[in-house]
Amino acid sequence: MALLHPLLHPPIMFLLPTQRALSRWLLSLLCLAFAGQVAAQSAPGPKAATAVARRQLAAQRTATPIKLDGVLDEAVWATAPTTSQFTQFRPHPGPRERLPTEVRVLYDDVALYVGAKMLETSSDSIRRELTQRDNIGNTDFFAFYVDPYRDHLNGYSFFVLSTGVQVDQRISPANGEDDAWNAVWDSRVAPLPDGKGWAVEMRIPYSAIRFAQAPVQTWGVQFFRQRKKDNQQFFWNEVKPEVDGFVNQWGELTGLENLHPPLRLSLTPYVSSYVNHYPYNEQGKRNMSTSFNAGADIKWGINESFTLDAILIPDFGQTISDNQVLNLSPFEVQYQENRPFFTEGTELFNKGGLFYSRRVGAQPLGFNDVEGNLGKGEAVFQNPGITRLLNATKVSGRTRKGLGVGVFNAVSAASYAVVQDSTGEQRRNVLTQPLTNYNIVVLDQSLPHNSYVSLINTNVTRFGSTYDANVTAGLFKFADKRNQYALKGQVNYSRRRGTVLNSDKPIDDQNGYKYYLNYGKISGNWTWNVDHGIESDSYNPNDLGILFGNNNISQSATVNYNKYEQFGKVNNLYTSLGAYQSFLFKPSLYQDAGLYGSVNTTFTKNFLTIGGDFNLDLPKHDYYEPRTFPLGLYYVRVPANFNLGGFVSSDYRKKLAFDVNAGMRYYALDERFDRPRRISYGLSLSPRYRVNDQLNFRYTFDYDFKHNQIGYVNDGLDANNPLDQPLLATFGTDVLLGRRNVSTFTNTLNANYTFTNRLSLTTRVRHYVSAVRYHEFARLRPSGAEEMLPTYARNHDTSFSAFNVDAALVWWFAPGSQVSLVWKDATSSYLLGSEATPLYFDNLANTANTPHNNNVSIKVLYYLDYLNLRRRPLRSKG
Fold first, then answer.
1. CATH number belonging to domain 56-259
2. What are the beta bridge partners of residue 780?
3. Which positions make up the signal peptide (predicted)?
4. 866, CA 20 to 30 Å: which among 15, 132, 570, 633?
5. pLDDT one-digit tens code per residue, 604-652
6. Where are the domains of the chain?
7. Cβ neighbours of residue 697 under 8 Å, at least 6 residues apart?
């Protein structure tokens, strides 16, 4: 924390630039970028950032059955072409590997076979930490990448760890390396006969990937090896970190003849059972409930390029719990998607950022409006918080000419709240969401030189008397032949038609648009970019996407200098410096502006990674915090401020490793009032301990404290409260603000025990507490003016606690088939006024004493492949 001490000197805040100076700095950053580029080109040392020539490996057809045992003892392996001489990527790009890796590729009518031998000095040099599927721990691994369409943008990867654990990914410009994608394939590992190394055999059925029909084919290919002992990673076809892109730096797999895309048809039925206990302890209400579910996931290869994936009667009850938080911001909380169907194979649908999959099966549209539909003496008896998903379907693929096509469709059932009269005898239903159809259509054309153009349309159709929504977007990226410069852009149009649910009032935000342009240098040690974007005041994609605030005009410029080779005592250096500025779109008013920068590096000997970042922000006009519309009349004035943060991450090869992240934001005094200075602190500590190669723990402590924050009072003014009635009589459209301290603690413990490479137990325990304590209140007037309310005495303090346990025992008993036993324990409490407490241990005790919901479930999935079933011989009846 000693590095943060210079922030305590107030004069720093009065050296902030003017808005006019910031515009000059934007231009200066561009000049710096061009100067750096010229210097880099004229300097004799660094060579141009161009990809190396593509290596080639010929695959050999085999008629000999391959026994998958990791031994590579079939005669056909000895006759197959062999390749080696991998090139180091980390920690120092460029050198050849010292301990060779040998790779061969075979194929037959149904699958590719990859055999690899990884030589080592001794068996003790091989790291073998057991992990769950799709998790890479302290292990060696070998990976096979393939780009069947050779478009240099999209591909598949298949990793096998030294323990036999599998990892697979789908690679695309939209999702990067997507770990959520899962395929059904097989692999085995074995030690080499002399003990100095290990070997792997992989069988990748053609049903796991997609490729075109052609007599002779050449695919993009890459092989990847990690030696965890020395933190080394090697690629077969050299990958240069200074070159933009990854798939475009792969080699080629030749000799593939007479391949026929198979009929891809599989069915994964499931059955699940749940036991739920919540201590209602009310007469006529059962504490215990049970349920039984059944459904299926079906995958069908429509043709050589396209696959239909449909889920019938979905069950997502075993997905990990959401990280609930106390939300004081004017925007909704964006939750992570954990449902497998919505995370797997969605790279096309995620292009353009228009698809927020949590909208599907989310909270009903009219969930918060039920109170307003109550009659005299009525009360809400039941109000479901989620809609029931009936089915979901995806069709996606890519043609041999590089045209990607994706169609997503889902249907959710109508949802109703139940209200009752004061006697409890009369009940009626209130529609909170009609039957709803969600649809996405994507066309994505791959172009030469790592470029593309895309067209995306999202649509939400609600049946009955309410509104529908549609968003259409066009995206493009054009890079030059040398992959040095690129122009990217996006144009969106949103359209909403109809009326508010259960009302005759027309829906707002009927037409809106957005555009974004970015141009810059994308490869080399020096890179830079400038961007500009507009979101109109009526642009609204939130029926199927997510946008936190429209009505923006923004621009920025960023310069990066990265050094990828070792120098001095460090392995690399990554730096960036930029400036930004934004305005309201309508009316055209200043919002904010500032500078930002970052730097990080890794030390050579101990692999300690350190880094830091800063923000220097001019005074900000926050038009969103007051929650008044249309924007422009009211804003909360945020003083100029400076933020400095840093992190340290140690070597994960050690039994005990840690991550530390700390930061502080220091504000200028608000000259209008005699208020204490605003200061914010943040600290994150995350030690991890590996007991052995099967058991590990990771604990994360997060602390955030905002001192003297000025913000909208979330529970607002209550017409039934005598303390609020005088203010309501005089405020009109004015807003109640409060000066508050907000302290947030999050404790998370992850424990993992892996029995075998197919059986594992994972446990996650999370406790979250956030407390808000108000010290004074003010009336927000137009144009940012504030009037203090020294006599206002209502208690608006708040505290929120959440506790979750997610424990899962998962057994992959066959490829694509698993049994999972899950226990969940959850509780939360939200306290207001005098009940709220800012003390952590009081909130912890309150969490412990709040009723907990306990849920135990078991789920069985069984993968059935039509090709495997067809090949099974009939049993004799004799």
1. 2.60.40.1190
2. 735, 786
3. 1-40
4. 132
5. 989 999 999 999 999 999 999 999 999 999 999 999 999 999 999 999 9
6. 56-259, 568-796
7. 688, 689, 691, 749, 750, 751, 752
